[in-house]
What we know:
Largest sheet: 5 strands, antiparallel
Structural class: alpha+beta
Strand content: 35-45%
Number of helices: 2
Number of domains: 1
Shape: rod-shaped
Distance between the termini: 107 Å
Amino acid sequence: MNTKMKRIINQHGLTVIELLIAITIIGVVFTLVASFFKVSVEIYDEGHRQTEEQHAVRLATDFVTRELRNATTIEIIDTAPDSGSPEEFYIYVSNNKLVKYVTDTDTETTYTIGDLDDVAYNFAVSGSFLTVEFSSRVEASDPAFELVTEVLLNNISNAPDDSGKYLGYSK
């Protein structure tokens, strides 16, 4: 056998250049897969946060709806209530929590709306409808999620038109 043929047959391994090329290709593929996975997890987390926020705001509007559907009187004021007549209630948002204030016992029941950075809300009455508007966001950079609910006030036929931040009512 000639010596050139022996050299080809006796080669057992890879050169340093071949190893570097293989490692580089594996590194590039791994980086692409890892980036895709990271972006997928971030998108999932953002969607999950938005879902939780929407759920929390929906629970708050459902609570307001249940409380006010059968109210006999309703008033909207712009300042926090100091006191009121017996069996009078107030609903407002404080520190991103929905608060139900009972005047005769001077107690507050707090309902957490969620882990939100910014909650804007407004109550408005027109005729026999109460409009509850919530606008919130998980983080300041996120777009706002808005939920507007109209509540038919069963026992009030013609309330004066008004809007504000504190909602007083009695049952």
